[in-house]
UniProtKB/TrEMBL annotation:
Pfam families: Usp (PF00582)
Domain UspA: 6-149
Organism the protein comes from: Flagellimonas lutaonensis
Protein name: UspA domain-containing protein
Protein family according to the UniProt entry: Belongs to the universal stress protein A family.
SUPFAM superfamilies to which the protein is assigned, alphabetical: Adenine nucleotide alpha hydrolases-like (SSF52402)
């Protein structure tokens, strides 16, 4: 069992971002965790503008920086003062950079185990941070698992985890580790669901299925087959809708994969934006 987790929590201070933070605290309630609350902002002066405009931009940058730090202090105080988990500690990061760069650097420098984000963001004067940016992080930060949390999802841990697979890839123990660790932590059952396109599995699929069983032997799991007759997203949506025990959807992203078919149409957005349960994306090691 993992002795501790480092969790990165990007935030724009919206209600959805705050909900994702609370979900992360709930999910890892029984673990030793360090949560890093990250706010990234961009308002730097341009080298192409005149001296007068650069001075104005610099004042604007300082105002944005001050506001971001003030908001981060407020959220951090609420989080730490309201915490009922003695095994949790919280740290804050205010970074003048793009979201992708800030997250990528934090993941590497802080040895982050999971990034947890919401899937909707602030509107009005604030940039729409979540949603499209969640997809950007999924695509750009391909070296850390990410959990996208729907705003409406209740603060509860998964009784069952749905793992969608095409048996097209030989999963390594390291790749499955983020899934297995959450299943162990939450005592969840993993439902490995294969959406069948052919009458019989090909040889490499049979091998992948057999090895998957071996990789999951340390946890409770079940292998299920579903006949192909509708879109992947429709299959997942219907299955989750009909099985209220499912509290987390998981996929592994690898090149030319079952999952890549999702990323090359707007399906990744449909899953990340519209999935009724939190969505764990794990990247393949190749």
């Amino acid at each position: 069992m993992n002795t501790g987790f480092n969790i990165l929590l990007p935030t724009d201070f919206s209600k959805n971002a705050q909900h994702a933070v609370r979900y992360a605290v709930t999910l890892f309630a029984d673990a030793d965790c360090t949560f890093y609350l990250l706010n990234a902002y961009e308002a730097g002066p341009s080298a192409l503008t005149s001296k007068m405009y650069r001075a104005r931009d610099t004042r604007f940058f300082r105002a944005i920086k001050k506001q971001a730090e003030r908001e981060l202090d407020r959220v951090f105080k609420e989080l730490t003062e309201g915490s009922t988990h003695p095994r949790h500690q919280f740290k804050k990061l205010s970074v003048a950079d793009s979201l992708v760069n800030a997250v990528g650097r934090a993941v590497v420098d802080l040895n982050i185990d999971y990034v947890v984000m919401g899937t909707k963001g602030a509107s009005g004067l604030k940039e729409v941070f979540m949603g499209s940016n969640t997809v950007k992080i999924i695509k750009a930060i391909d070296f850390c698992p990410l959990i996208a949390v729907p705003q409406e999802f209740p603060l509860k841990r998964p009784k069952e985890i749905l793992f969608a697979t095409g048996y097209e890839h030989i999963y390594g123990a390291f790749e499955l580790s983020p899934l297995v660790k959450i299943a162990q932590l939450c005592q969840s059952k993993v439902i490995a669901m294969h959406i069948r396109k052919e009458e019989e599995l090909l040889e490499h699929q049979k091998t992948a299925k057999e090895l998957l069983s071996k990789r999951l032997k340390s946890i409770s799991y079940e292998l299920r087959e579903v006949a192909n007759g509708k879109s992947l997203v429709k299959h997942l949506d219907d299955y989750i809708g009909n099985h209220e025990e499912i509290g987390l959807l998981t996929m592994i992203n690898y090149w030319h994969s079952f999952f890549e078919k999702i990323t090359h149409e707007p399906v990744i957005k449909k899953v990340a934006f519209h999935c009724k349960v939190p969505f764990l994306v794990i990247h393949s090691v190749q």
